Amino acid sequence: MISSIVLGAIRRQCLNRFRPFAAQKLVLGRDFCTNSLPGQGKRRTKDDFSLLSEAHLNPDHFGTLSPQVDEPETPDEGDLREEEFLQNLPSRAQKLSVREYADLIKDHLKNGRIREALDVVEVRMKEDRVKPVNYHFNLLIGGCARVGYSKKAFQLYNKMKQHGLKVTGGTYTSLFNACAMSPFLADGLNRANHLREVMLEKGYEPNGSNYNAMIKAYGRCGDLKTAFQLADEMVASGMSIETSTFNFLLQACITDREYGFRHALLVWHRMHRMRVLPDRYSFNLLLRCVRDCQLGDLETTQQLIEQILRESIGKSEKKRELLSSGDEGKLELSDWETGQPLVETTDGELSDRLLHEGVPDLLSPKPHLGSLVKLGEVRKPEDRLLLLGGTAKVFSEMERCGVEPDIRTLTELLDVIPPTYAAEKQLLTIIKQRKLRCDVDFFNILIKKRSMRFDYDGAKDVLHMIEAANLEPDIVTYGVLALGCQTQEEARSLLKMMQDADVRINIEILGAMLRQGCARQNFRYITEVLTIVKRERLKPNEHFLRHLESFAKECEKRNREYDAKPRKKGREEFKMEYNRYRMQLDAWREHMGLHGLELDRALGIVRDHPWEQFKQPQADGFEAVKNPKLRHKTKKQHQIRQVVLDAMPEVKPPQVTGGSAKSDVRLVD
Question: Residue 344 gets which letter from DSSP?
Fold first, then answer.
């Protein structure tokens, strides 16, 4: 046994020593063969199928299954990427932790750099060979949702599912928020419907934040019925309805311009019934409804107001019933749509509310119509504000609820008060007495309000108020001042003021000047505005082109009238100015690349896609303090105690255009 093992070892040693010599002989033999046949290489390259044909001659030799093909000179891109991927391995120092990647994303989102934030996951982490977690995706989905980039938000959601990551409740909340903030309402509504179906298929039970986001999405996209049904679902499932939920319902009311104010009254008094105190945002949203929304058909509105009065009268009885039944707080919003009183009241109590003396008050928990004669005459924002009790009642109700008004409240009030000096003076007096702080946006709204009623001198006087309040004009201030530039001299004066303040002109300011030039049919004024646009290399926007188009139609109409009446006074002067203007307009359009285009095609060229800004990286040298959105959040606010109000006239100055200065709501003394 041992001898056989020894003999086997000796045999293997001999074989190993002989193998190098055998291989060397084999190589020398091959070299000799190739050298002795110099033309064989050419014949092989001449006939690529020689090996295959020779293989068929010998039945014991199988040959090759395919001809020998030379390798391509240019390597495959996929191979190069694979080789680069295998060779360029990231170092440990290059990789960051999950928290550090999240901090990078947060920093980019904070400064509005959406493209850079997306590149952290799509580029940086891919290069570092680090797999993102659901926290990273939730951050990006939330950032895209806040700016209305709904398409990218849902793409990230699909990638999140492809990576096998868990979809949390916060993910659904951000996705519905993306639908709410989308600039395309139909697309946002379709995405919200699809996402809600996905949640139902998966059997996911929404939480309070999910419901609030869904109400916000459906409300802002115009589906008020679904928004109110979701609120009813919250009540039916036993969730507590908080102030934020009612705020989202008020946002839904704002989208309905015809019936929104009526819906807002329903929501407001439902808050009173459920003993939910409104906050600052509730009052601001209600004032926005006052500004933008109507009452709807008068018959239904009258029934609704009577229903609100009945509810307020029987509130204490209903409260006792709820406490005894143990079902307090579960009051469905759909009860309002039935139009049936939940509590029976006597006709005497209701008559007292309907025939109450004084100013109407539909804001407080005990509403009444005061001395309102006819509800059909409530048409303007100041009339709807009067239904709530006026400016003083809004401030007193905020004080009752323990809410401190902010600058947004003051700005919303300024938008809905009557267009008179007396109303403006009353509001400024209340601001001074309560020592509230204002910023330059408040005075910008005041300038715009006076300019829109053609009180251009009063609009210029607001500049002294801005100076007395220790504030500085911004770009919006010059924009609203441009609304009052009726002549070329006034426009040049404003441009000189902007140049001295080192403020660069923009297309919005020039559009306001163009509007005045078109309204006064001043060809030279319009031509000068076009020249400035060309010189400053500005891109015209949609409003700018629409002003030019409407002015062109008006000029064509006048031109036909002059052709029909050749002896009409002013014909020659108009023809000369109009022909010169058309030549200069054609040259301007050609310079802008809009020559010969219809309005729709021209608008398609100048109109920027709202999501295009998120596909490009931010310009170099960007600083956070120069970000207009961040700068707006930190605007200076000061008290207006130095503003002199005694110099303001008590009566409204005469208007340029027709219209009655009398309020449409008549009160009986």
Answer: -
Closest CA to 336 of 265, 427, 250: 265
Q: Which of 485, 491, 486, 479 is nearest to 445 (CA)?
A: 479
The CA–CA distances, whole Å, from 406 to 268, 418, 436 equal 20, 21, 8
pLDDT tens column, 39-71: 444 444 444 445 445 445 555 655 555 556 566
**Which residue's entry shows tokens 């019936």?**
259
Contact 423, 627 (CB under 8 A): no
- The residues facing 361 across adjacent strands are 368
- Rounded to whole angstroms, the Cα distance separating 474 from 467 reads 12
- Amino acid in position 117: A
Q: How far apart are alpha carbons 226 and 223 in whole angstroms?
A: 6
Find the helix or strand (DSSP H, E) in which 125 lies. Answer: helix 125-127
Q: How far apart are CA 242 and CA 208, in angstroms?
A: 9
Of 270, 187, 255, nearest to 225 by C-alpha is 255
Which phi and psi (to 5°) does residue 341 adopt?
A: -70, 135
Helix (H) or strand (E) holding 437: strand 437-438
Give 222's DSSP letter.
T
Ordered DSSP codes for 28-75:
HHHHHHHHH-TTHHHHHHH-TTHHHHHHHH-TT----SS---PPPSSP
**Per-residue pLDDT averaged across 412-418, rounded?**
91
Which of 413, 416, 411, 420 has the alpha carbon at shortest distance from 443?
A: 411
User: In 10 A of CB 380, how many CB atoms?
Assistant: 16
Among 511, 494, 457, smallest CA distance to 655 is for: 457
Among residues 74, 95, 145, 50, the alpha carbon closest in space to that of 614 is found at 145
Q: Which residue has the tokens 């009642």?
A: 393
Q: Is the pLDDT reported for residue 462 higher than 50? A: yes
For 91-102, the pLDDT digits (tens) are 767 788 889 999
